[in-house]
Write a structure and sequence with these properties.
The complex is a heterodimer of chains A (221) and B (228).
Chain A (H helix, E strand, L loop, with lengths): L1 E10 L2 E11 L4 E5 L6 H8 L7 E6 L2 E2 L4 H8 L2 E4 L10 H11 L4 H14 L15 H13 L5 E5 L7 H13 L6 E5 L5 H4 L3 E6 L2 E4 L7
Parallel strand pairs in A: 3-8, 3-9, 6-7, 7-8
Antiparallel strand pairs in A: 1-2, 1-4, 4-5, 9-10
Chain B lengths: L1 H15 L3 H34 L5 H12 L3 H12 L14 H26 L4 H7 L4 H11 L1 H17 L2 H7 L9 H10 L3 H27 L1
Helix pairs in contact in B: 1-11, 2-5, 2-8, 3-5, 4-5, 4-9, 5-8, 5-9, 6-7, 8-11, 10-11
Classes of the chains: A alpha/beta (221), B mainly alpha (228).
Chain lengths: 221, 228
């Protein structure tokens, strides 16, 4: 799905990311681990096409990404990033989950059907008319997950989606995440939970000082 | 003291009787202020949002300039626009001087920096996750910025109201560009200045009361928005 060659991201003289080579295969689940400041969020932002690298090449589905505004917009419609503290827009849960569908011109019954299905998927049936700003942290996280999943993205990027949420919500979201590769979705997830890579049966990528220290350890799929 | 009390009572009677001169001045004031505010919003909001969202080499200078323009005396704006619209000026052939349109032009120049600065402050104070969230959900640049404006709509509305407050209460531009023509370009503020100088203190006070009520309503609304 992705191939990264000699990717560097610098902020002034500080090198945040320096990856010689990294391949992310289609329909697989990857967990991204490393200490704070290792470059995990920077890498995720680059994979989400929100942040261009300072130098290097990225290939997505075999095509070299040129970072032109028009083509980047196209790539962004295939990839969705979910932050650790997701921002919910004002309005209802429905407005939030339908946001990306509206941006893609999906309207009417198709829109409603997909929103309802996504809310069902994260266990939020009956929440569609609730005000998004009045939800608890765990509910908000699940709405953000539904908002990402409703788009059926080719790649789902998750920046510590299970931090600061309760155990019940963690279980719901982990189940949803673990089921995605079987549906063809590529998942890259940042985690600080040492047991999560095993629970999700993912390929572990360890970042240290902006470099890939352990891309594909043996013994994991 | 009796003078003030009797003038106040006369002012209330003038307001209550819907004196044509009072109604004219109030109508002209509100009309030119609304027109200027609309144009100021059309220029100021995009400018403020653009400056707020962009990074460019002279950004600090542009922000300083916008801040400075907020404090430009109204008579200076009146003077500059007078020079442009007067018969010898570059736009003199249009014959706009001493018309409501001239007041709208001057009011727009007064209010636009205020609207832009308030909009800029709203963008700066907005949650930094709004635009990236919209982008990663597949929004194009315009939809992402539109979403941001929707999320900070109360701040943007406050910007517009602050612009209106500036225009409706100023006297320099209206006097210099409108000429204080009765029933045509006479606004509340120019009428107060003129009638008071003629000794019609009660008339001036009537308009002053209405102007204060408008200013009070604008500020109450602004306060309400800022709390949301």
């Amino acid at each position: 799905m992705y191939r990264l060659n000699s990717i560097r991201k610098c902020y002034g003289s500080n090198v945040a990311l320096d990856i010689e080579e990294l391949t992310i295969a289609e329909g697989r689940l990857y967990t991204l681990t490393g200490a704070n400041g290792a470059g995990k969020s920077t890498l995720l932002s680059i994979l989400a096409f929100l942040l261009p690298p300072t130098s290097g090449e990225i290939f997505y589905a075999g095509n070299r990404v040129d970072w032109n505004p028009g083509s980047v917009e196209e790539y962004r419609r295939k990839v969705t990033l979910l932050h650790q503290s997701p921002y919910l827009f004002g309005g209802t849960v429905y407005d939030n989950v339908a946001f990306g569908l509206k941006a893609r011109g999906v309207q009417g019954e198709a829109q409603q059907r997909r929103v309802d299905k996504a809310l069902d998927g994260v266990g939020l049936q009956g929440f569609r008319d609730r005000k998004a700003r009045e939800l608890s942290g765990g509910e908000a996280q699940r709405v953000a997950m539904a908002r990402a999943l409703v788009l059926e993205p080719e790649v789902l990027l998750l920046d510590e989606p299970l931090a600061n949420i309760d155990r019940e919500t963690t279980g719901v979201i982990e189940t949803v995440i673990a089921s995605l590769p079987a549906q063809g979705t590529t998942v890259v997830l940042i985690t600080h939970d040492p047991e999560q890579p095993d629970r999700l049966n993912g390929v572990s990528i360890l970042l240290e000082g902006g470099k890939v220290a352990m891309p594909h350890p043996p013994g994991r799929r | 003291m009796d003078f003030l009390v009797s003038s106040f009572a006369s002012a209330l009677r003038l307001i209550g009787s819907f004196s044509p001169d009072v109604v004219d001045a109030v109508g002209t004031s509100l009309a030119v202020s609304a027109g200027a505010t609309v144009f100021a919003a059309l220029f100021g909001i995009p400018l403020g949002v653009l400056v707020g969202l962009s990074d460019f080499p002279l950004k600090r200078l542009v922000v300083t300039l916008l801040n400075t323009l907020m404090a430009v005396p109204t008579v200076v704006v009146g003077l500059v626009v007078y020079g442009i619209l007067s018969r010898q000026g570059p736009l003199g052939v249009l014959g706009l001087l001493f018309t409501p349109t001239a007041i709208v032009i001057g009011g727009t120049l007064l209010a636009a920096p205020i609207v832009a600065n308030y909009a800029l402050a709203s963008v700066r104070g907005a949650d930094p996750r709004i635009v990236p969230t919209a982008l990663t959900l597949g929004a194009g640049r315009f939809l992402a910025v539109g979403t941001l404006i929707g999320e900070i709509r109360f701040g943007i509305l406050a910007a517009v109201i602050a612009g209106f407050g500036r225009v409706v209460s100023e006297v320099g531009v209206a006097m210099m560009l409108g000429g204080n023509i009765r029933g045509y370009t006479r606004t509340m503020t120019t009428a107060i200045a003129l009638e008071t100088s003629k000794g019609e203190f009660a008339f001036g006070m009537a308009l002053g009361i209405i102007l204060m009520m408008v200013a009070l309503l604008v500020n109450l609304f602004l306060n309400l928005l800022q709390k949301r």
